Predict the structure.
Amino acid sequence: MSEGGEGLQGAIDRSVLASLQELQDEGEPDIVVEVAELFIKHAPDKLLAIEKAAENADAKGMQIAAHSLKSSSAYIGAMRLSAMCKELEQAGRSEALEGAKKKAETIKAEYERARNELESLINKPADAK
């Protein structure tokens, strides 16, 4: 992976992680690692909820699940994933469920990109970040 402009081209916006890193307290566990691990741990449940809501044409369920994943994605810097979830959240809110299954699949694929990138970032030695 190259550095430089990757923050905007990759699945994770590095500037968001840098802002999060500024909240780091000396002597405490790495805040970016902790937040990334929580995201990786909890996102699959949110993805499953989105998938089930799409399959069951559950507009309210899709709105809620997409909103939750949208927020946590933005917090960790997965801005494209967050934007995709926002679109699905709005579709759920307006009960416009046409294409929801396809959007859910696309969101899942983008999550995988974000997860892979986060995992590679948090598994780097501290001096390589």
Remarks:
- The chain is about 70% helix and 0% strand.
- Confidence is low (pLDDT under 50) at residues 1-8.
- The chain has one domain: 12-124.
